């Protein structure tokens, strides 16, 4: 019964989306208030019906209703209750239901929190979201219905949730990632609405910024969490694999980062308008492309869902309509946009263009690296692989100029910057960072160029950030009390850059100075790695709710003193007949100790993999700091819409004329 | 003195047994080479994993072969060539350079070049035709409103 | 209107990508062509799995069109294709087995050659025996030379001893009709 209710509720949600796509847009074009005012209630309806469908599916999981095909495929009576709730997004159909739920949530958030935005703009934005939503809801109803029944013959027990997904990181990773992906739909809708209305001005940029920041914060956290999960759960100590699916989430992040910066310029200086709109379209398009890549089975990836060409065709059709349509609209409307401000070659504007160019070429690297194997094969040239060696090489080339611009940008003024002043700051910063790297590496043997480069870049960013804050303080001339005068969005930038510096530091250290050993051990034996003695105590049997397995116990000593006890597990999930590695990690600020249990050897020894990973937490810590920076920026009172509208109305008229 | 040290070391190594590596290497350099090769070679049977990160039988066989070839003194490139002979370009994560794949390196380069050129050209021909007064007025209005807000 | 060209660029790029994505939907990303195609089989010298005193080399493929089938009793899919392969043998197709044992790893498991022979006899007596003989690749080196990634895999080898086709996965009626038969008939003439 619940399944039918849920299904029906989804049909109603589709109906809401269809109405939302038509009436408010019609009203906005004709200037009819009543029609425009339908946008909010329709959006709320869309959300409530989707939420109800989602609750129905969750309840079916909790009730172990295996007459529903999706539940039978992704759950089991032995599965703990909390994993039964998260199993809702453990497979293709349910994860798409989560996707549309989050989509509806964003839409309703726009409806609720945009009181300050003129009604015609809001109506258009929500109508655009409605149009995109029609596609999503049609797809879930026609091609991937999670409520399909297995009647009359249904299994007594389910096939269980993929063991890879039975982990805390997996509980929150997909929702965060989807919040990011789908969040860009809001930015997209704002851009398209502005193109349709022909009003692309500073107010548009100001309205889009908090939404962009929100989506970007979620995406940043989602990606970082995914990386942390892979590190812990795959058992190979890796944190990034350049897998097509990871790339699919990285591309919108890169473009989203570019968009954040160019929105700042468009808002403050009214330049790069057409470029910013393109980025807003691109960020969402790449999110959709990522969905397509994951769900069509077109690429060989660790994470892909079971492939099904009809689903692939459906999403591809959706892609053509949404992306193709919006790019066409862009091509028709964008040439009319004129940028207003003037700036010299040495100015903050130029630095930010540079930032955008480099971020976009990084996106291009990832896009081509992901898709070229496919193109190569379709051209009849044979199968090739593009992986870490290629991407690592390209990103090293890109990061150097990128950091140089990152250091120069905040130190430069808008419009025009004097070369001499900037040069002095830069030289001082560079000198200090080189000195710091020298001190940090004193006494280390086996120095790696890559590590030195990464550390220098990271420290330089940190120093430049401090220089910039000092420069601001001396401008307001209040000493340290002036710190309060800095806006939250300014602190957001500071944190964003510091977080980025931390991530670079982590990446440089962990890729260059990680040590690992593949060893065979019997109880009582030990292995010494970087001064850490890992003593193997033995292996014990292990029984969990839906798995059995082994747990290896080790003590870690430094100079004879015990500092940690590690338990590395190997689980055998009985229903899915899958072996999973649960690595033991002793986390630390400057290093992780990491042990993964391998196979038992014929002579009774155990194979173990032992790693020392320096500074690996900095990678995710940096991401968390960046996300915090994004949150701070969002809290800036400039974005409190209600107040804004009064200030912006006369201005938008003027700006509209000057376009 | 030296003899004593050796004896001491021998004694120590008896009391705590050191674990044996699955693959024993003569030098750190060789171990590094092994690590790099196994991370750059793709497991032909798996979803998308290098042979270092895979437990598949074929990945284990390839790892063992890499080790054997290293022991025979083969270089990095020779080992990659050996694997490509058997499993094609697919087995190596660094794509081969040909007219189609050249785009991988040239594409981003052309993009950066083109974009920089475009910015320089467009910056020159801009801003003269704009109504500067109107713009200044708009800006002033926005700023004064903001100043008011900040005071509130 | 001159300026529109530049703004159409993203759309053009997107449509180009779409074209390839569409094409990609209908091909299997896991199909990888063998690098041995149209090359002579690699040299080897391996014993018969049933009788260590009998040695085989590449010359066993001379003058006859042969299917070389890579298999093992531990492999589930291999068991599925055995009846069909036996049917083919009855139609006069020459099938040679390349046998390898998962359990023969020096580190993991310790199956003796006697056990392996007993397993093979049991399997083929139940499901049918398509093989003229089985080459025993104990170290799996020859499999690697053939570019084998797992089991089952099947090679079509012509009268000059060159590899003409490499199929990964089970060989069934459909695969035989579509992929193998046309080339097999052409080579057999």
Observed structural traits:
heterotrimer; A: alpha+beta; 19 helices; 11% strand; disordered C terminus; C: 189 residues; Glutaredoxin; 7 strands; elongated; transmembrane (chain B); metal-binding (chain B); C-type_cytochrome_biogenesis (chain B); heme (chain B)
Topology:
The complex is a heterotrimer of chains A (659), B (152) and C (189).
Chain A: H1 2-30, H2 33-37, H3 39-62, H4 69-74, H5 81-86, H6 92-113, H7 119-143, H8 168-197, H9 202-233, H10 244-269, H11 273-296, H12 309-333, H13 348-378, H14 388-411, H15 419-440, H16 449-476, H17 488-513, E1 515-521, E2 526-529, E3 532-543, E4 547-558, E5 561-573, E6 578-582, E7 584-586, E8 591-600, E9 606-614, H18 616-634, H19 641-658
Antiparallel strand pairs in A: 1-9, 2-3, 3-4, 4-5, 5-6, 7-8, 8-9
Chain B: H1 2-15, E1 20-21, H2 28-40, H3 57-71, H4 76-87, H5 102-124, H6 132-151
Helix pairs in contact in B: 2-3
Chain C: H1 4-25, E1 46-47, E2 55-56, E3 66-71, H2 76-90, E4 94-99, H3 113-127, E5 134-136, H4 141-145, E6 153-157, E7 163-168, H5 173-188
Parallel strand pairs in C: 3-4, 4-5
Antiparallel strand pairs in C: 1-2, 3-6, 6-7
Mind explaining what this structure looks like?
The complex is a heterotrimer of chains A (659), B (152) and C (189). Chain A has helices at 2-30, 33-37, 39-62, 69-74, 81-86, 92-113, 119-143, 168-197, 202-233, 244-269, 273-296, 309-333, 348-378, 388-411, 419-440, 449-476, 488-513, 616-634, 641-658; strands at 515-521, 526-529, 532-543, 547-558, 561-573, 578-582, 584-586, 591-600, 606-614. Chain A is α+β, with helices and mostly antiparallel strands. Among the domains of chain A are: 1-161, no CATH class; 523-604, no CATH class. In chain A, helix 1 (2-30) packs antiparallel against helix 7, helix 3 (39-62) runs antiparallel to helix 6 and helix 9 runs antiparallel to helix 18 (616-634). Chain A is globular, with a radius of gyration of 27 Å. The N and C termini of chain A lie far apart (57 Å). Mean pLDDT of chain A is 89; it is low at 641-659. Chain B contains six helices and one strand; from the N terminus they run H-E-H-H-H-H-H. Chain B has 152 residues and is mostly helical. Chain B has two domains: 2-91, Helicase, Ruva Protein, domain 3 (Orthogonal Bundle), CATH 1.10.8.640; 102-151, no CATH class. In chain B, helix 2 packs antiparallel against helix 3. Chain C is of the alpha/beta class. Chain C has a single domain, classed as Glutaredoxin, CATH 3.40.30.10. Helices cover 39% and strands 16% of the residues of chain C. Chain C has five helices and seven strands, in the order H-E-E-E-H-E-H-E-H-E-E-H. Chain C has helices at 4-25, 76-90, 113-127, 141-145, 173-188, and strands at 46-47, 55-56, 66-71, 94-99, 134-136, 153-157, 163-168. The longest helix of chain C has 22 residues, at 4-25. Chains A and B meet through helix 13, helix 14, strand 1, strand 2 and helix 19 of A and strand 1, helix 2, helix 5 and helix 6 of B. Strand 1 of chain A pairs antiparallel with strand 1 of chain B, so a sheet runs across the interface.
